[in-house]
Design a protein that fits this description.
The chain is of the alpha/beta class and 285 residues long. A 6-stranded mixed β-sheet has the order 1-2-3-8-12-11, with helices on both faces. The chain has a two-stranded parallel sheet with strand order 4-7. Strands 5-10 form a two-stranded parallel ribbon. A hairpin with a 5-residue loop joins strand 11 and strand 12. Helix 3 runs parallel beside helix 4, helix 4 packs across helix 9 and helix 8 packs antiparallel against helix 9. The longest helix has 21 residues.
Amino acid sequence: RMTALFEKFRPHIIYHAAAYKHVPMMEFNPEEAIKVNALGTQFLADLAIKYEAERFVMISTDKAVNPTNVMRASKRLAEMYVQALSTHPHKTKFVTTRFGNVLGSNGSVVLRFREQIERGKPVTITHPHIVRYFMTIQEACQLVLEAGSMANGGEIFVFDMGAPVKISDLAKKMIRLYGYVPNIDIPLKYTGLRSGEKLYEELLVDGENSVKTYHEKIMIAKTRPIDQKVIITQFKLLQNKIDSPNSPSSMRLVGLMKQLVPEFVSNNSEFEQLDTTKIVKLKND
């Protein structure tokens, strides 16, 4: 279907925002995370080259930095593939934008809090100290368009998200905006960190890990170079595993993801055992 669309419309600029972004869902369905977030990006990026699109802007996430779960690692794989395509000359300029949570977007915590408050239910938060970066839909769109226009190819643009927001403070403010008193009219209920969830996110915006651009809110992340031949071989291996008549177990698929993304270390997940195995193997080597 995508091939037919490219053949018919010959797009000049592609903004690739399609992805599974919900952490628990992908932790239980790693095959889908790989198929959509990683291999789906590969297929679309290859079409961009074939049909000579001018630019390919991938919408990534701060969650791709030092991933602790399957969703994050699948987005990092997508970033790596897009990076690798820029190591060889193409008509298409490939660029990645990386930022945090967008207020009011599909699946946003704000929407969930609003629904819970309006129903008079407890507002559920995973951890009292969990923090996240936020920006508005308008801010996110403006910065994505700006970064896409300034790209030379191969960059990972990181947006200045401001100060991180404590989720419990956000919940309390929303409760007050509705005219209620937190923990009296509407209680806060802490449910515990979900599988693979971090207390905080990393954007790589400090001076050692990023380079300034002419836009005060857009930096370029310093990342390790990606070899195109290596990444293509690795993605073929992923595709072969997915296409195998004997479907690989989630444990084997995630183990392969950890080989391709060495910084992928699971947190609060059944896949932590793979990291222990990796440590033992390194010691034995």
